[in-house]
Design brief:
Elements (H helix, E strand, L loop, with lengths): L7 H29 L13 H29 L8 E3 L4 H6 E3 L3 H11 L1 H5 L2 E3 L2 H24 L1 H4 L5 H20 L3 E3 H26 L3 H15 L15 E6 L2 H11 L3 E6 L7 E7 L2 E7 L9 E7 L2 H10 L8 E2 L6 E7 L3 E7 L2
Parallel strand pairs: 1-4, 5-8, 9-12
Antiparallel strand pairs: 2-3, 6-7, 7-8, 10-11, 11-12
Length: about 350
């Protein structure tokens, strides 16, 4: 991915464009959504056409990403002619080594910086080929928007924002280098894998520190609450095991086996893992499963009035869930705001006086 540009103006221009893009995108996005009454934090929007407008917003973001990828493809493929042979460069950090010359070793330079200061350490280094250094810099800058846009545009990447963007950038760079090698459009360079991945990592960091902060104005309050909890919880019993703990099963009471099968199995789609009929009782016990969540139902098989019961689950695509529930003859509430998380939710009722709430995951 040899982008041979040695102009300081070009470097400043590219840097300014990337910086403006990183800063302006979330600001414009938040301003437009606020004006239209759209909630970017997955809560309930005040605009009655919010569902359609949020889908339109997502399409616009897809378009922004596609447009940048077209620019990217032009720079690395279509802006150059095919070479006569397949070119491969596997020497790690060759561009950086050729760009600088030093009259002493790297360790000695570091020690000099600690002993005599930064200026004294850098005085041992001379810049020989600024074009090689510029190439490394531009290769990093080329992937910053990709590492920034991937979590901004795609929810799947955003859910694991600490690892997925940089992994995707590495894979894109790996694919690009191989495509360049196959079609002889440039040079297969190991250094580019490192510099592109560093650019993706920087873009990922900028998304967390800029885009998320701009589009989530309550982040300071949430962060302070998290640190306050962490200070108090770290000496408590379960804190060291918090990452391994998950609520996987809840227990409900029921009165009719037929209603259980009709509602939970036939309409909602739970799988019956096990059914137990105790010998010394008229009760029937069920263990139902949906993904990693389990519901235990204890059915008394007799008419009785049960107290109000609650079951809360979280899921994505709340609009599709509401539509499918209604298609299966289950009436749902209108979308509401969960008072604890601020996320969108809806609820519906099942047999035996149970209220099931579905909260939309970000």
């Amino acid at each position: 991915m040899q982008i041979m540009i040695n102009s300081l103006f070009t470097v400043l221009f590219v840097t300014a464009c990337v910086a403006a893009f990183v800063v302006l995108l979330p600001i414009i996005d938040r301003s437009v959504c606020k004006k239209l009454g759209l909630n970017l934090q997955h809560g309930l929007s005040i605009n009655p056409k919010a569902t359609a407008l949020l889908k339109l917003r997502q399409l616009v973001l897809y378009g922004v990403f596609a447009l940048y990828m077209l620019v990217f493809a032009f720079l690395v493929f279509f802006s150059r002619s095919a070479t006569e042979s397949h070119l491969v460069h596997v020497a790690p950090f060759a561009d950086l080594r050729s760009a600088f010359e030093s009259d002493t070793g790297f360790v000695e330079i570091v020690l000099t910086i600690f002993r005599e200061g930064f200026a004294a350490g850098i005085s041992h280094v001379r810049l020989l080929k600024p074009e090689d250094l510029i190439q490394v810099y531009l290769n990093i800058m080329l992937f910053i928007p990709i590492g920034y846009l991937l979590p901004y545009v795609f929810p799947w990447v955003r859910r694991k924002v600490r690892i997925r963007p940089v992994v995707c950038c590495f894979l894109i760079s790996f694919l690009t280098e191989n495509m360049q090698l196959i079609f002889r459009r440039g040079l297969y360079d190991i250094d580019d894998l490192f510099t592109n991945t560093i650019g993706g990592l920087i873009g990922q960091f900028l998304f967390i520190s800029i885009a998320f902060v701009v589009t989530h104005p309550d982040w300071r309050k949430e962060l302070r609450a998290y640190h306050r909890w962490k200070r108090h919880a770290r000496h408590r019993t379960l804190y060291p095991f918090a990452r391994k703990i998950g609520l996987s099963r809840t227990t409900l009471l029921a009165t009719d086996n037929t209603a259980i099968w009709d509602f939970y199995v036939n309409k909602l789609g739970f799988r019956v893992v096990k059914q137990i009929v105790p010998l010394d009782s008229d009760d029937t016990e069920y263990l139902l499963e949906m993904g990693s969540s389990q519901v235990e139902i204890r059915c008394s098989n007799c008419e009785e009035e049960l107290p109000q019961q609650y079951l809360t689950i979280s899921a994505r695509n709340l609009d599709k869930i509401q539509k499918r529930l209604q298609q299966n003859g289950i009436e749902t509430s209108a979308f509401q705001t969960d008072p604890y998380t601020g996320l969108r939710c809806l609820f519906f009722f099942g047999p035996d006086n149970i209220r099931i709430t579905v909260i939309e995951q970000p």
